[in-house]
Amino acid sequence: MKRINLILLGLALAFGLFAFIKIQPSGAVVGTNVGNVAPDLKFNNPAGQPLDLYAYRGYYVLVDFWASWCGPCRGENPNVVATYKEYKDKKFKGAKGFKIFSVSLDQDPARWTAAIKQDGLEWPDHVSDLKGWSSAAAQLYGVQSIPNNFLVDPKGVIIAHELRGPALGNELATLVK
How high is the pLDDT of residue 161? Predict the structure, then answer.
């Protein structure tokens, strides 16, 4: 009897574990580790229009978590801007190009849009649910500190995480034709 109970318990635990793992039709695991397919993000931009991360398949995409009130984020923004300017028009191996998908953990839309302008974040892809640390995007990606980022390849697979300073440019340089 104990053996049957152990087998049933093992099956229940295994089933519970698989309930938390999302598998794509291709067999790839959706998650936030390098090698996982990046979870989709669908949020509004400052104008209230929805943007969908999965719409950028075919590009290398930096999913960049930040906020207007975050000093380290604002300090990192010049690096991100410089890298964007350097790589936005480059030709990449097996990709249409490079995009940045900025996810703000702001709660105040005026401060968010002012920081975008002040920091020269010229790319068009900015989203937020304006819930601060309760952001659904931060929860989905397990973001507990910012700045934080994930570099996603043209198939939607995370290929790098936490690229700050020159590390982002160095990584992108290896992907250019």
Answer: 97
Q: Which of 104, 102, 82 is nearest to 172 (CA)?
A: 82
In the chain, which residues have pLDDT < 50? Answer: 5-25
101 sits in which H/E element: strand 98-104
Residue 28 pLDDT: 73
75: Cα separation from own chain's centroid? 19
pLDDT at residue number 164 = 95
Query: What is the per-residue DSSP string for 25-73?
Result: TTSPEESSSTTSBPPP-EEE-TTS-EEEGGGGTTSEEEEEEE-TT-HHH
Count of CB atoms situated within 10 Å of the CB of 107: 18
Distance (Å, rounded) from C-alpha 121 to C-alpha 104? Answer: 12
